[in-house]
Amino acid sequence: MYIYEKEVLPDGLRLISIHMPHIHSVVVAAYIGIGSRYEEDEKLGLSHLLEHMLFRGPRGFKDSLELLQAVDDIGGDIDAYTSPEHSAIIIQVHKKHSKRALEILGALVLGGNFREEDLNTEKQIVLEETSQFMDEKGDYVCLDDHSYALMWKTDSRDYVSFGEKKTIAGILKADLDEHYARFFVPENVVLCISGNFYKEDVKNWVVDAFGGFCGKLTASKPILTVEQKAPRCLFKRTSSQTTHFKLCHKAYPYKHPDVLITLLIADVLGGGISSRLSSNIRERLGLVYDIASYPTLFSDVGSVDIYTSTKKANFEKTVTAVMNEVKGLVDGGISQKELMRTEERVFGQMQFTMDSPLGMANWFGTEELLVEPKKPDRPEIQAQKIHNITPEEVSRVIQEIFTPERRNLAVVGPVGLWGRKRVKRLLE
Question: Which residues in the chain land under pLDDT 50?
Fold first, then answer.
C-alpha cells in the first residue's frame, strides 16, 4: 500500500508525498500549469522551447552538460514534456539518492538563467524535434495537433504546439524571461515525491532545494468551448502511401462524474487486444496493423478518440468499418458480459498504477494541478467505482457522446476531393 499526504508550503508550493515503502526507487516530479494553450498563435512553441531551455539554465550548474552528468552520477533518469495544458519535469532514482534528485529538480525549476547562445542552439534542436512531424514537402502532419485544433480552436487550424520555423525564429530571450516569470511561480507548481523515502526528511529537503521560490500567478486559462452543430473534418493531403486518421467525439473533462464511463467505453471500442475495433477491423477485415481508442482529458474539456492508419487504397473502407463499430455501439450498447470483462481490465490497469511510483506521481500530480480537488481521487477508490457502473449508465453516456454534432475527423494522407466528400457523408 501507500501513504498519501499533501501540504501547501508558506510560499504556495503544493507538496504531495506518496510513500511506497515496498519498492527501491523514488520519483520526484514538478507539474507546472504552462503549455501551448496559453500562447498566442505568433508565439506557438514558446512553452515547449522554455521546457528545453530549463536544462540550459539550471541554478547552481554552469551548463546543461554538468546537470545531465549529475543525473548520470546517481544512476538516474530524467525526462520532461509539454502538453497543451501543462508541463512536467520528472527524475527517477534509487531511493538512496532522493535528496540529490530533489536538489537537481529544484535547480531546474528555479533556474531560468537563459543565454542568447544557448537559445540559438536549442531552437535548432526544437526544429529537429518538430521535423519528425513534417512530410517531404515540409508540411506539418501531427495528428494530435490537427485534431486539437479542429475541436478546440476557433481562430486557426494551423496549430503547431511544438512551434514551427517562423514562430520559433521570432522568440527572443525576453519572451522566455517573461514567460518563465509568469508561470514558474509557487502556486502554479505541484511538486510530487513518490516511492521509498524517509518521510520526515522530505519537507526539509524541499525547503532547501526550492528556497527562494517566489512570485504570483497572473495568467488565466483561455476557454476552449467551441460551438459545433455538425461533424467537422480536417484533411491534410500528403504524398505518402499511408493515411492516418483520428475520429474524435467531444466528451467530458478530467473530473466529470461520467469520465469513468468514458474509460470503459473507450476500452470496449479499442482498449484491449480483443476489443471491438481490434477484433473486427484488424483481425477479421485485415485493414490495419494497429487501432486504438482512448479518452483525451483536459481540465474543462475532453474527447473519446479512435486512431489508426491504413494504406491509401483502404482508407474509405477503414473509415466505413470504424463508423460501423460506432453505429453498433450506439444501436446495441454494451452487453453485461462485455461490460464485466472490460470492468475487470480497467480495474486491473488502475491497480497496476499503484505498483508504479511514476504512475502514482502522474496520477496525483496532474489531478492536483488541473482541478485542485478538495479530496484526491485515489486509484483504488476509482477502481472500485468501476465495478459499480451499470449497462444503463453506459448506454446513457453512449447516446450522449456519439452523435454527429460531437464528431470530428482529422486525416493526414493522400485523400482526394471525392474521397473527402464520401467520408464526410459517412460522418453524418
Answer: none
